[in-house]
Amino acid sequence: MAAVTYEHIKTCKQSGARLGRVHTPHGIIETPAFMPVGTQATVKTMSPEELKQMDAHIILSNTYHLFLRPGHELIREAGGLHKFMNWDRPILTDSGGFQVFSLSNMRKISEDGVEFRSHLNGDKLFLSPEKATEVQNALGSDIMMAFDECPPPDADYEYVKNSLERTTRWAERCLKAHARPHDQALFAIVQGGMFADLRKESVRQLTSMDFPGYAIGGLSVGEPKPVMYEMLDVTVPLLPSDKPRYLMGVGSPDALVEGAIRGIDMFDCVLPTRIARNGTCMTSEGRLVVRNAKYARDFGPLDPKCSCYTCRNYSRAYIRHLIKADEVFGIRLTTYHNLHFLLELMRQVRQAIMEDRLLDFRDQFFAEYGLFDNERGF
Amino acid sequence: MAAVTYEHIKTCKQSGARLGRVHTPHGIIETPAFMPVGTQATVKTMSPEELKQMDAHIILSNTYHLFLRPGHELIREAGGLHKFMNWDRPILTDSGGFQVFSLSNMRKISEDGVEFRSHLNGDKLFLSPEKATEVQNALGSDIMMAFDECPPPDADYEYVKNSLERTTRWAERCLKAHARPHDQALFAIVQGGMFADLRKESVRQLTSMDFPGYAIGGLSVGEPKPVMYEMLDVTVPLLPSDKPRYLMGVGSPDALVEGAIRGIDMFDCVLPTRIARNGTCMTSEGRLVVRNAKYARDFGPLDPKCSCYTCRNYSRAYIRHLIKADEVFGIRLTTYHNLHFLLELMRQVRQAIMEDRLLDFRDQFFAEYGLFDNERGF
């Protein structure tokens, strides 16, 4: 039996979104699900208990970062990533592919893999399908990602075509290198840029192999959201319906709802934790920058409709004071709130699917939340 | 009835230390007690729930910092400091006297008060006995401190003599300015530098007025610990036995035990939280610098004898990784551990007093903890 399986519960009659459960060695993920990001074996500022309190079912961690520091062998010696970081629920690790292209310097890509310099100390390092798989086997994540090439957003058709074909060959090498298929599941990553036919071709190639789940990569890289939704519209229907579908790097509230409507089961993004660190909050009334002077004497909660720990106990005035004073507890409070906001949103999405009213939910949510432009959205 | 009263439970037959309870409007402090410091209305990196989990009975906050930012009027509008920071147990606020002398620039001291420039933005500000009292009345702390002058550590006899006499006159002005004597207690601060006769003179002057508690200030400012203990030996016996006695700015484990032996009831210090932020931990085996490379693959807890949240769940290797990677959760874990260490030490001190064996406890603790020199102590 595969390490990770998808259980379909129902399809929303109104939207086509699906409600399900992903079964993993460390427990069940109710889908559609948002996964908080714990890049360096910690979801920035949060404890595992707090993540459980807000009912995160799964977190994501980064192969690239952990490979560089503290090193995957150290984490293997510690008994794996779950034990190392005291998190006993599911973990998904990405392959490092995206970070190699976005963070490191002096990359040299060949068919074999990618040579790059560490963004920490300039060390020359190498990641390949085999190495990324070995690292993730050492980490012991429930869901591993195949090592892919992320073409630059401005890459032309020819480049993207060659790149996605390489990504397919690399995915096959990851499958072969995978040493723990019985307790870790390896997902493939669909590429193809903003070219509909290349997206379809990538799906065709990858689904010819038997992966237990499929991710869609290379989106949310600067393109307008309608373009991203168009790529989902051509891609998702071709993915097998009995496997989880994961849209990588997407975490703005509107895109989570639109993604679920298009049949996505899993999402991750650093957005809620990153914006929290400079005092930007997601609320039922849209974006709120709590640093702003107008909140100095506002003794109400970040979001009057929110029931999270932060909103039950602290005022905008207090949180603003903490953030202005560079106090860590301030970013703990905004981080907690933002993660809770997205996890609560996904609970509402699941409820709306259950009740066949996800399109109604979307319209109502968007009307309350505001326009998702640069002013009020993310 | 006074806002704060001291209940004497018993005196240790072996050491002379005293076990007691300080009753305040927000609850009871079991003494001898260590008070974690929450300078800017937050104990750095900790939540109120975590402070309760480690059973902190009282925390300290800083008048100087809150006067500068966010301002005492804002905190008054918020409903007081307890409500502002979501802490419903007792709070002690210092008077700002020490910070004016240690943090600000361009001080001008007169009989009226101290003119100084904010260390944040250079604004010209003024604190006086009346102003420091007004600020603390706005904050609503259970225990307020009288505004004192802290002479520089190298001040000569004449300077210290004049200074302590001014501190007495200022204490009298604080008493007069105090607007809420029924729900806030104002403690006086004994000064006198390292001069035994001046310490005695300061006590004599201050105890001629009726303060509900007395602090000893101007110690732990760089002098050798035996000198500090000598000053306690000449000072404490002259303080009224029916009032709490508070030794300001002392938090090294050995000095807490020695202070309790000399009849001190309350202590505060930034030491445990400050050293935690660069990865230095207090353990039953002495000081442990968890950043050090030798702990990279050490999968044991910070302190094998400790039962705190950090030690029950995380390894030295993980904490070292977090601190090297600048992850906030790392300093949350070391801060939690260090505060727990001192609070647990005080529980053991109280138990030893109850059982008339505090000198035995001291000898055993010092033998296990190691020498309190610069190598292993603080």
Automatic annotation (TrEMBL), chains A, B:
Keyword Zinc attributed? yes
Q: Record keywords: Transferase included? A: yes
The UniProt entry annotates the active site at D94, D268
Binding of substrate: at which residues?
Answer: D94, S95, G96, G97, F98, D148, Q191, G218
Residue numbers spanned by region RNA binding: 249-255, 273-277
Q: Which cofactor does it need?
A: Zn(2+)
* Single GO term (MF): glycosyltransferase activity
Q: Which reaction does it catalyse?
A: 7-aminomethyl-7-carbaguanine + guanosine(34) in tRNA = 7-aminomethyl-7-carbaguanosine(34) in tRNA + guanine
UniProt pathway annotation: tRNA modification; tRNA-queuosine biosynthesis
| One Pfam family it belongs to | TGT
Q: Which UniProt keywords apply?
A: Glycosyltransferase, Metal-binding, Queuosine biosynthesis, Transferase, tRNA processing, Zinc
Tell me its EC number(s), please: 2.4.2.29
Could you name the domain of life of the organism this protein comes from? Bacteria
Tell me the ranges covered by the tRNA-guanine(15) transglycosylase-like domain, including all copies: 15-369
Q: Which residues bind Zn(2+)?
A: C306, C308, C311, H337
Cofactor binding summary note? Binds 1 zinc ion per subunit.
**Subunit text:** Homodimer. Within each dimer, one monomer is responsible for RNA recognition and catalysis, while the other monomer binds to the replacement base PreQ1.
Family stated for the protein in its record: Belongs to the queuine tRNA-ribosyltransferase family.
Q: What does this protein do?
A: Catalyzes the base-exchange of a guanine (G) residue with the queuine precursor 7-aminomethyl-7-deazaguanine (PreQ1) at position 34 (anticodon wobble position) in tRNAs with GU(N) anticodons (tRNA-Asp, -Asn, -His and -Tyr). Catalysis occurs through a double-displacement mechanism. The nucleophile active site attacks the C1' of nucleotide 34 to detach the guanine base from the RNA, forming a covalent enzyme-RNA intermediate. The proton acceptor active site deprotonates the incoming PreQ1, allowing a nucleophilic attack on the C1' of the ribose to form the product.
Q: What is this protein called?
A: Queuine tRNA-ribosyltransferase
| This protein's encoding gene | tgt
